[in-house]
Specification:
19% of the residues lie in helices and 29% in strands. By secondary structure, it is an alpha/beta fold.
Length: 259
């Protein structure tokens, strides 16, 4: 299994427009430049893209992403959906065949509202083509499995995902954009090889986990490695990373893991 962190920043990106000068953010450190959060997962040769940030095109170019076989939208917020038009290139590479798009019911409704021209069986000319599918609890792809559960994110719910590769048995849990990780989600992820989890900032937030809350959940799940994502512009990579317990660290754009 291969996992590429295309983006690790919050909805405004990092640094933000008119970045406050009093925030201790070292912009000489490339790990403090965060595009909006998404990941790319390859299991036994099958490429699964999770979310499409506004920077999706550039993320794919910078990380040499050349194939998408399935697309999962965790939820319908702008920072996760606004790059989906750039999936058109991957549709062309599929000989114009529609790309399966999995999400919650509300996520699929938003895709249909924003991209009505893409809801079809075959791509025409340079346009994308999406085949909308309600994300099941268990999605089997060529023997590998993606399990899903709902996580609370303010007034919304997002998809929490656990990937299990057939050939290796390696497991990745991906819990972005949530203020709580339910008991069901923790049970699905327990003892995973890698946990990727929302850790917005130190200060409390009504729809995201704080860094301390994420550390507590990571301890409960007991993954071999844990990476935080969706950090704000006041999280300085090197400073915060030094405070985290063993086995837990901040993710960063371009991080590539081979499990």
């Amino acid at each position: 299994m291969e996992v590429v962190f295309l983006g690790t920043g919050t909805s405004e990106g990092v640094p933000i427009i008119a970045q406050p000068e009093d925030f201790a953010l070292d912009l000489e450190n490339p790990k403090n430049w965060r595009t909006r959060t998404s990941i790319h997962v390859v299991m036994d040769g099958c490429a699964i893209q999770v979310d499409a940030a506004p920077e999706f095109r550039l993320q794919c170019i910078h990380n040499d992403i050349r194939r998408v076989d399935h697309f999962i939208l965790t939820h319908e917020h702008a920072d996760h959906i606004q790059g989906m038009d750039d999936l058109r290139r991957f549709c062309r590479l599929r000989q114009g065949n529609a790309l399966p798009v999995y999400s919650t019911r509300s996520g699929l409704e938003r895709v249909q509202a924003i991209y009505p021209y893409a809801i079809k069986k075959k791509a025409k000319s340079n346009y994308p083509a999406f085949s909308l599918v309600l994300m099941p609890k268990k999605l089997e792809i060529d023997g590998s499995i993606i399990r899903s559960t709902l996580l609370p994110h303010g007034e919304f719910h997002v998809l929490g995902l656990v990937f299990e590769e057939k050939s290796t048995g390696k497991r990745l849990a991906y819990f972005t954009d949530c203020h709580e990780v339910t008991e069901e989600a923790q049970a699905l992820a327990r003892d995973a090889d890698v946990l990727v989890i929302d850790a917005l900032r130190h200060q409390p937030h009504r729809s995201h986990l704080t860094i301390n809350q994420a550390v507590g959940i990571a301890k409960s799940i007991n993954a071999q490695e844990t990476y935080f994502v969706h950090m704000t512009c006041d999280v300085e990579h090197d400073i915060v990373n030094k405070t985290l317990p063993e086995g837990v660290q901040l993710g960063y754009d371009g991080l590539r893991l081979v499990l």
